[in-house]
Amino acid sequence: MSQSRLTELTWREVRRAGERGIALLPIGSQEQHAGHLPMGTDTLLVEETVDRALDLLAREEAPPEVVRLPALPFGHSPHHLFAAAVSLSAATLGAVLDDVLDSLVTSGHHRVMVVNGHGGNDEIMRLAVKRFALRARVTVAACSYWTLTAGEEAGRPDVTPGHAGWFETSLMLAAHPRLVRTPVPARAPVDPPPLFDNPPHPGLTVERHGEWERVDGATDDASGADAALGARLLDDRARGLADAIRAFDTASRPTR
């Protein structure tokens, strides 16, 4: 058994898998994605990337053993509550991740990888895994799927990942075209431009009250999104994630 889903395993199979395998947890969100993408976009895209990466690994002669957990569908999305979201506070999301990690270790897992699909989760996720590894005998990795690439499809780094913009819409057109409301409208120019994804100086994090509502919940113009390029971008992220899983497996594999 090299690739399996936690939901479909017996408890004895989980125990055996935990001895040498990696438990992989996708996390996403439920939040507005402008007027053309569904609430679950972040969850759908992280699941798609994870499943494509695991399919790639399953074709290898000696793939890493991975137990794929159900995706956590809720994230930290208070900045989208102006329209619609199901949001956990930062403290609650951190506590949920802590409880899930603790459960996995208690159930026999020694290695865990968290793969994130929502920008608002990123800092909370990374802090959670760092804190957990200080108190539990476990090796934990964390990443956001859009940051891992195989370097073969550059796309448009200026609007990646964005929110409900060109990047996410292209990926959704490739992965779940029936869920994209078309035609995708052009985004009207916004003046002054938002600061949350375009800070006035490198290295600054800038948030301005009411910014997300003012830009109608989208970071950039999605009207030029392309399904074919979205498929290549998804495949590139899947290959990047497969590389990351393989590297994590090699670096953290039990010696006995």
Automatic annotation (TrEMBL):
InterPro entries the record matches: Creatininase-like_sf, Creatininase/forma_Hydrolase
Cofactors that this protein relies on: Zn(2+)
Entry keyword annotation includes Transmembrane: no
Gene Ontology molecular-function annotations: hydrolase activity, acting on carbon-nitrogen (but not peptide) bonds, in linear amides; metal ion binding
Gene Ontology biological-process annotations: riboflavin biosynthetic process
Keywords recorded for this protein, A-Z: Hydrolase, Metal-binding, Zinc
One Pfam family here: Creatininase
Protein name (Swiss-Prot/TrEMBL): Creatininase family protein
Species in which this protein is naturally found: Streptomyces parvulus
